[in-house]
Amino acid sequence: MADHAAEQGYLLDNQQEQAGIRFAALAELFDPVTFRHVDALGIGEGMRCWEVGAGGRSVPEGLARRVGPSGAVVATDIDPSWTGAASASDDRPGGVIEVLRHDVAADPPPPGGFDLVHARLVLVHVPDRAEALRRMVRALRPGGRLLLEDADPVLQPLLCPDEYGPEQQLANRLRSGFRTLMAGRGADLGYGRTLPRLLREAGLEDVRADAYFPIASPACTALEAATVRQIRGRLVAAGLATDEEVDRHLANVATGRLDLATAPMISAWGRRPLDG
């Protein structure tokens, strides 16, 4: 999310070289969960979707394949550099993907109204997340669905839930440092659990939620290595780790023998009333 991201509190910007690795790992870990919900919500041919904080390409492309040529997807981010190459790239015909530079908490919603508004691992990083949520709800057509998916590191704070040795202890200490950096930039580390309540308070109906977190996936390993490389300078500058500790942790991760986990991703969804 570029230099502007620092002003917005986002710790992991889209222009560092590790961003592409992170997007690929997040897609592998969480796209099956996201599209299980998207499909259950009945998102299909001819619908309009707004993907908020798109970052990478996988979710806009998956939505485009579902809505087809008669539908459309608007993918927005404050730094859309990775999303800009999005295309519906498989054998199924895809809808149009419009990519916009956009701040969900400050800019008006894209015009036209949407059958689905979706944001994944976005609002936890947005300082004015309440305003962002209001704008997303306002962008829904009557009967439209809002699907929010966000992390809750407080529910499961450990990188290595099975902390049985010094490698796991070091990993968990560095993960604690990462959470400290996030909190210092305005992230709400307990935000995920509030999503069902917030959707109901926003006037949505049929609110439901579930949670998911992987353990011991190769994608967790790739995500951890890319994340630590991206934030190592900040960890060291803040006195949360030394360069030697970061190097030792990265070497431990590279063995593939650490059972690494993510924070739980809570998915919550609801429907705008037909008369709303």
Describe this structure in words.
By secondary structure, the chain is α/β, with parallel strands linked by helices. It has one domain: Rossmann fold. The protein has 8 helices and 7 strands; from the N terminus they run ααβαβββαβααβααβ. The chain has helices spanning about 1-10, 20-40, 60-65, 130-140, 165-185, 195-200, 220-235, 245-255, and strands spanning about 50, 70-75, 95-100, 115-120, 140-150, 205-210, 265-270. The protein has a 7-stranded mixed sheet with strand order 3-2-1-4-5-7-6, sandwiched between helices. α3 (about 60-65) links the parallel β1 (about 50) and β2 (about 70-75). α2 packs across α7 (about 220-235) and α5 packs across α8. The longest helix is centred in the N-terminal third of the chain and has 22 residues, at about 20-40. The chain is elongated. The chain starts with a helix and ends in a 5-residue tail after the last strand.
Question: How is the secondary structure organized here?
Answer:
Elements: H1 2-8, H2 19-40, E1 48-52, H3 58-67, E2 72-77, E3 96-101, E4 114-120, H4 129-138, E5 140-151, H5 166-184, H6 195-201, E6 205-212, H7 218-237, H8 243-254, E7 265-271
Parallel strand pairs: 1-2, 1-4, 2-3, 4-5
Antiparallel strand pairs: 5-7, 6-7
Helix pairs in contact: 2-3, 2-7, 5-7, 5-8, 7-8
Give the CATH level 1 class. Answer: Alpha Beta
Question: How are the strands of the biggest sheet laid out side by side?
Answer: 3-2-1-4-5-7-6
Mean pLDDT across all residues, rounded? 90
According to DSSP, the number of beta strands is: 7
CATH superfamily: Vaccinia Virus protein VP39
The largest β sheet comes out as:
7 strands, mixed
